[in-house]
Here is the input.
Amino acid sequence: MSFFTALILSLSAFAADAPSPTLPEGWPNLPVIDAHTHAYFSGQPETNSGIPETLPQYLKELKEIGGVGAVGHGGKGVRELEPELASLPLYQCFGVRDKVSAADVEKALKAKKARCVKIYLGYVHRFAADKAYRPLYKLAEKYDVPVVFHTGDTYSTKGKLKYSDPLTIDEVAVDFPKTTFVIAHLGNPWVESAAEVAYKNPNVYVEASALLIGDFKGRQEEVEAYLIKPLKWAYGYVADSSKFMYGTDWPLVGMKDYFEAYKKAIPEKDWCKVFFQNAVKVFRMRELEKYRCPKETP
Here is the structure.
């Protein structure tokens, strides 16, 4: 039996198991959800990290960190998932680009093909409070799903940074208090603004994916300066363990490298919330509620 076949059988088995307080044999003790991945596969190595963009690599890295679920961010709309990802489960965000169609978004949400809405601030030259997006926030409230914003630096010179400043999320958080919002990338480099918006608004959460990308080998000083230190500061400022989720932006960075760095920024007593429970709550991953963290009682 090939490694890939064995891995798929293992993933399928744990996805179909009856509710259990523990993870399957061979999994790390802590259940983990990666709240920011790109689960589409070119088959080529990613330019910065060198990680092969393949389904076997994606599943392998998830297993290494104890991944029991993930959130997938695509470029536009949603796509048909490979069976292995659908049963993982992988929750897709409906990607909204230049064209905004509330009808298309609602169709995907109603069919549960999309379990969140992704808005690409900066890449698209609109503010979060733009009137084009407001119907989407109402839909997110109606279907009880979060809206995720790209914030901070854009991975393109054509992006306009004034639109991706996380401080702009405050306006929609106030105007739509019953909608859940997620600030992706912790607003990097405007980490302080992202932390303040999450601190102030009860309906705003953050994940700190892609604060540093590429292969981490031999880069410990950079990992400390650009990932661990700002995440630790934001975590202390917000002072609410329910507000943070783990995310990587795979394949821009390896899941294991990012997991180990995240653990250095977050107090161990809060790992269960940050790596697992908060994503279950924010993304309504009810099928994953069966898993338990170490020392957690049912």
